[in-house]
């Protein structure tokens, strides 16, 4: 069934190479996007729990905006609208980036900031799930609030939310496919191209589906390892990350 | 480029509204069918019905592991073939992108809803079914009158959050060139080139609807939690 993937395509490569190149872009987008999303998400999630009103309000505004606009629309905003509203020099530079960077960078920004809003909600839920005594004890010990977050609150909160972060990891690699709407030839786009060139739709989509399923298993396996390594020991019953766990866990 | 001018949005408003109506109709249909089908799938797994229970686990895991756009492409290609194999002459029957989108979203969302409902079923005390049996209810009656109403109440906030995500996801029918809110805007852009004004408008419409809806869900969630605490 997959024989056609080893045939030569119009550009001299094999169709399999097209799919592999698509897979590469999907992975790059998901990998880098995840780390940016995680960093921004932790910052914003912390911001939602601090006492200073202005910071909490800004963090909340961030989550509201980035979580309530569809990824596709955000993709268009980054790709089409941002270069227009930037100063002419910066906008022109963005528009003239050679492919695939011209679509990769907006897609990366879009997925990172969208996923960050979801991570932030999980981080907030994790921080709020900690007993109040933890924060009070840090104050009694004379820690500054930065020290309290860095040394006491975040280490515990992040370990609590590993299972819910699993679903965000799985969501970001699936959302990479939305980048095809701004012209990035990631896995789904390449599968469609192969199908259009060869008319072997089963083989093309089947191979892509298998690749995504493998990615899901790898992401799930990695997150289970992370959870096993970092989970807070103790008698408390905790839920393990489940394969294809609810996207809308605690924080939603 | 042209100066930014939001008056074009006023002229475009009726067309955008017709697009929004399509998005809402798709959401409502997928919600209704997804809940019905999802409950069935969840029950088949929960009651460990042989073969069916396993098959629907594979179905749900697969649906949840691949991107919605790929699912849309799959169905766009597969549905005519499946319908064709059911018809007497066995030739593929084309049903057009609109019906494809409706079928895909119903089946896709069923997988997500079923996972939520299944967790709700598992969280319910087993004593509820046993008590129903002790009272002389049959298993279908127990689920119909005792179990499902309670599960519905506990999972309602999560189901509604998922529905907000579903509403956002309907924008992806753009890849089938349908005229939902995003599709309507993109067709107007092809005519007048006003993509800044139209993209921003579309973003604001989604933002308004989804923010409002998530606030309602948050209120419902607090009530559900308070109700659970009372018991």
From TrEMBL, chain A:
It is found in: Cell inner membrane; Cell membrane. Coiled coil: none annotated. The chain crosses the membrane at residues 23-46, 58-81, 101-120, 202-223. Its main location: membrane. It is a multi-pass membrane protein. InterPro entries: AA_ABC_transptr_permease_3TM (IPR010065), ArtM/GltK/GlnP/TcyL/YhdX-like (IPR043429), MetI-like (IPR000515), MetI-like_sf (IPR035906). Keywords: Cell membrane, Membrane, Transmembrane, Transmembrane helix, Transport. Residues 23-223 form the ABC transmembrane type-1 domain. Gene3D superfamilies: MetI-like. Pfam families: BPD_transp_1. Belongs to the binding-protein-dependent transport system permease family. HisMQ subfamily. This is Glutamate/aspartate transport system permease protein. It comes from Azospirillum picis. The lineage of its organism: Bacteria, Pseudomonadati, Pseudomonadota, Alphaproteobacteria, Rhodospirillales.
From TrEMBL, chain B:
Pfam families: BPD_transp_1. This is Glutamate/aspartate transport system permease protein. It is found in: Cell inner membrane; Cell membrane. Gene3D superfamilies: MetI-like. Belongs to the binding-protein-dependent transport system permease family. HisMQ subfamily. Keywords: Cell membrane, Membrane, Transmembrane, Transmembrane helix, Transport. It is a multi-pass membrane protein. The chain crosses the membrane at residues 20-44, 65-87, 93-113, 154-178, 198-220. SUPFAM superfamilies: MetI-like. InterPro entries: AA_ABC_transptr_permease_3TM, ArtM/GltK/GlnP/TcyL/YhdX-like, MetI-like, MetI-like_sf. Its main location: membrane. Residues 20-213 form the ABC transmembrane type-1 domain. It comes from the Bacteria. It comes from Azospirillum picis.
């Amino acid at each position: 069934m997959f024989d056609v993937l080893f045939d030569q395509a119009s550009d001299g490569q094999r169709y399999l190479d097209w799919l592999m190149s698509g897979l590469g872009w999907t992975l790059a987008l998901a990998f880098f996007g995840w780390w940016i999303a995680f960093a921004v998400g932790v910052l914003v999630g912390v911001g939602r729990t601090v006492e200073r009103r202005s910071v909490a309000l800004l963090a909340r505004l961030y989550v509201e905006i980035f979580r309530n606009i569809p990824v596709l629309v955000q993709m268009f905003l980054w790709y089409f609208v941002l270069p227009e509203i930037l100063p002419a020099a910066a906008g022109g530079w963005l528009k003239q980036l050679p492919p695939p960077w011209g679509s990769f960078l907006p897609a990366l920004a879009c997925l990172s900031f969208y996923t960050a809003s979801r991570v932030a909600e999980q981080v907030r839920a994790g921080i709020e799930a900690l007993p109040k005594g933890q924060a009070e004890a840090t104050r009694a010990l004379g820690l500054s609030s930065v020290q309290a977050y860095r040394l006491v609150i975040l280490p515990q909160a992040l370990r609590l939310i590993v299972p819910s972060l699993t679903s965000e990891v799985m969501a970001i690699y699936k959302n990479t496919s939305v980048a095809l709407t701004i012209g990035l030839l990631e896995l789904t786009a390449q599968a469609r191209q192969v199908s259009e060139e060869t008319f072997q739709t089963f083989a093309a989509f089947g191979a892509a589906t298998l690749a995504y399923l493998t990615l899901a298993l790898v992401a799930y396996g990695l997150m289970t390892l992370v959870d096993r390594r970092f989970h807070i020991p103790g008698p408390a019953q905790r839920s393990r990350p489940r394969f294809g766990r609810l996207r809308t866990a605690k924080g939603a | 480029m042209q100066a930014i001018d939001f008056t074009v949005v006023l002229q475009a408003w009726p067309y955008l509204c017709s697009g929004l109506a399509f998005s809402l109709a798709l959401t409502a249909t997928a919600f209704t069918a997804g809940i019905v089908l999802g409950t069935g799938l969840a029950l088949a797994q929960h009651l460990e019905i042989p073969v069916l229970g396993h098959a629907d686990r594979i179905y749900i895991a697969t649906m949840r592991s691949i991107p919605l756009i790929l699912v849309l492409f799959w169905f766009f290609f597969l549905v005519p073939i499946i319908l064709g194999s059911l018809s007497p002459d066995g030739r593929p029957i084309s049903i057009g992108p609109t019906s494809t989108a409706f079928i895909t979203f119903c089946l896709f969302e069923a997988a997500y809803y079923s996972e939520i409902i299944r967790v709700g079923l598992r969280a319910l005390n087993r004593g509820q079914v046993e008590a129903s049996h002790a009272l002389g209810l049959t298993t279908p009656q127990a689920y119909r009158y005792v179990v499902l109403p309670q599960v519905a109440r506990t999972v309602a906030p999560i189901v509604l959050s998922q529905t907000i995500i579903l509403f956002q996801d309907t924008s992806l029918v753009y890849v089938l060139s349908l005229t939902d809110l995003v599709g309507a805007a993109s067709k107007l852009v092809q005519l007048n080139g006003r993509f800044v004004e139209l993209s921003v408008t579309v973003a604001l419409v989604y933002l308004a609807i989804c923010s409002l809806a998530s606030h309602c869900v948050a209120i419902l969630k607090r009530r559900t939690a308070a109700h659970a605490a009372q018991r």
